[in-house]
Amino acid sequence: MTYSPAAVQAPQDSVVDDLYWRDEYSQITEDDAFLRNIVETSDLPALLVALAAVTRDFSLLRPNLRPPQPPADTIGQPHGGMSQEAQMEARELAFQALRRVRDEQLTRVETLDEDQATSILEWITNAASPEYHPFLMHDMALAEGKSGKPRWNYEDISAGREFSVAIIGSGVSGMAAAYRFGQANIPYTVFEKGNAVGGTWWKNTYPGVRLDTPNYAYSFSFAQRDDWPQQFSEGPEIHAYTCEVARRGGIEENIQFGTEVTSAAYDEATGLWTVQMIVDGEQVSRRFNAVVSAVGQLDRPKFPDVPGRTDFAGIHMHSAEWDNDVDVTGKRVAVIGTGASAYQIVPAVVDQVESLTVFQRSSPWMLPTNGYYDDMPDSVKWLVEHLPHYGQWMRFWQYWLGVEGRQHTMNVEDGWNTPGSVSAINERVRQELTRLLAVQYQDRPDLLAKVTPDYIVGGKRMLRDNGVWAESLKKPQTTLVTSGMERMTENGIIDADGVFHELDMIIYATGFHASEFLEPLQITGRNGRDLHEYWGGDAKAFAGITVPNFPNLFILTGPNTGHVVNGSLFTMMESAIEYTLEAFRHLLEENLKALDLKQEVLDAFVRDLDAANSKKAWGHPSVNTWYKNKFGRVSQIWPYPVLDYWKITRRVNLDDYNKLS
Ligand code: NAP
């Protein structure tokens, strides 16, 4: 259970840092007509760079064919906005190159040197600032030596000093930390209160659970699975991926399952954290040099504060505590909430229930996504199998398109005073999405009035819409209640209009206690300081990671590291892990007990951050979301470009910290 270096299966000496790396691909045997069809039905930017990398013919990446990528206010244009003319030329080039892959039996691809990787980057990003290059190469599996893999080893720098780390939680951030620490041979143990890895993907088993971000880009940079069955895969598929990564990465054996960490206290004299945990009902205590919180923040279900809530005697469960033994068939069911979880549950259960009553407090903005439930196209499946590294290039292309995504639609324009929007672009998006809603609900003006959101686009994360939500609401068995809930009774809910809804089952899709970072862990820092008292409900951490007076405590997916319309959860958490590893390196090389963030550094960081968030749609005073805490401060969202987060996590500025020795 405790980490031993031999457990790491990843190739330590290899330049490749990808647990899904394949050396050999299937040989192409199909005829020209088949290949023609492949290029006709494929996304061209990913296809061309994959072909250039395999054939080593970088002249395929002609400057006139660069995908221009006009900013996508709502739906991005296919092929990165390439003109019809450019698409035709690119298809012909791709066809010829694909024939070459077949005729020369090219079944493997070598890594790229710096110049080759750069020429691909310049082409695929349409010559975006070179500042992006190192950032993007981090996620380019073929770029030699550019990944987040640590380039140092514990044994080489520790001078025999004992050092160990506790990671709390084995969700995706805890797993990524474990993998990277393992690569540096840092001794660690992961403590997981459940009995499986995967965190949110293990816990959330409600009907309809699936990804709502494109699947290729939703994966670890060091585990670039290439054969995803769908663009937005279902929950069990993602959970299976996390289990597979834990196995391939040698993480699993270093996880102590069934162990709930209850507290951690820092001891000034020794510089060690005493971590208390419950194992098999017994209180156990262990000491570590550093504590890494990977507890996530969408873990503790939140229930609405409705009079009589506990009086309801029927079946009731939160979306994150789904009981798969419960059959909804023929039941009178209520779903409370219309956020991301409800949005997946409602279409999944609507045809099984006798009646469905949806209690909506605010209606979500929706992003049209026709292929939301679709299987991966056959052309993609074939390319993944036959064109070496195509899947990784798909991932890379999707990743790049999401880096800044629709951020530009969310900026508050100085002097803009049209109610319901924050800028001309934001207003344009609102009008476009409103128009699409009007089309969807043209036969139901009663519903249209209820489902048209009354808050700024981008105030909250948009939900993927392939029409199933509208279909579900229009069904005769469905009632959409927008008046609110007056009270709950033993057998139903009385709405704010006084109408009684008799129910067999209530599904709470009402979100989580997201602002209460690290609750209910009791964390005691220097001089007996309690973390939650220090925060007072207003969690703040430098880069979301470190907090003054809590030396060697590192938080993953911490305050202000989330995104609304762009970015990548994986980049944010992997960057935070790389920063944490840099801190470990300093501790070991300089034989320090601990690093303690200076208060003034955090204050300055938060001052700038708050100012930046106030200039975004989600920071607007009229918007009320879980991104804001009880003080109205945005404590969830990173307001800057993702690149900025990556930059500030490249190195630990020791001047920001008090060095404890
Ligand atoms: P959520 O987005 O916070 O939605 C909660 C819903 O419950 C909202 O509609 C909210 O209304 C409503 N609500 C809360 N309290 C209520 C009350 N007292 N009365 C009536 N309605 C109430 O929670 P979630 O749907 O569980 O999603 C949480 C986050 O998890 C998402 O934002 C997303 O980041 C993530 N998620 C991701 C996926 C995925 O596919 N990858 C799926 C599910 C969740 P208001 O809007 O008015 O607050």
Structure in words:
Belongs to the FAD-binding monooxygenase family. It comes from Arthrobacter gengyunqii. InterPro entries: FAD-bind_Monooxygenase_sf, FAD/NAD-bd_sf, Flavin_mOase, Flavin_mOase-like. Residues 62-81 are annotated as: Disordered. Keywords: FAD, Flavoprotein, Oxidoreductase. By secondary structure, this protein is of the alpha/beta class. It has 3 domains: 5-147 and 376-404, no CATH class; 155-300 and 514-642, FAD/NAD(P)-binding domain (3-Layer(bba) Sandwich), CATH 3.50.50.60; 309-372 and 418-508, FAD/NAD(P)-binding domain, CATH 3.50.50. The chain is built from 19 helices and 21 strands. The protein has helices at 32-40, 44-55, 84-103, 114-124, 132-137, 154-157, 172-183, 200-203, 235-248, 340-349, 378-386, 390-404, 424-440, 445-451, 468-474, 531-535, 569-589, 599-613, 642-648; strands spanning 165-168, 188-191, 255-256, 259-267, 272-279, 282-288, 290-293, 315-318, 332-336, 355-359, 366-368, 463-465, 478-481, 485-489, 492-495, 500-502, 505-508, 522-524, 553-555, 594-597, 657-660. The strands form 6 sheets. Strands 3-2-1-7-19 form a 5-stranded parallel β-sheet, covered by helices on one side. A 5-stranded parallel β-sheet has the order 8-17-9-10-13, covered by helices on one side. α2 runs parallel beside α3 (84-103) and α7 runs parallel beside α17. The longest helix is centred in the last third of the chain and has 21 residues, at 569-589. The chain is globular. The chain binds NADP nicotinamide-adenine-dinucleotide phosphate. NADP nicotinamide-adenine-dinucleotide phosphate is lined by residues 210-212, 298, 304, 319, 336-342, 359, 361-362, 461, 509-511, 626.
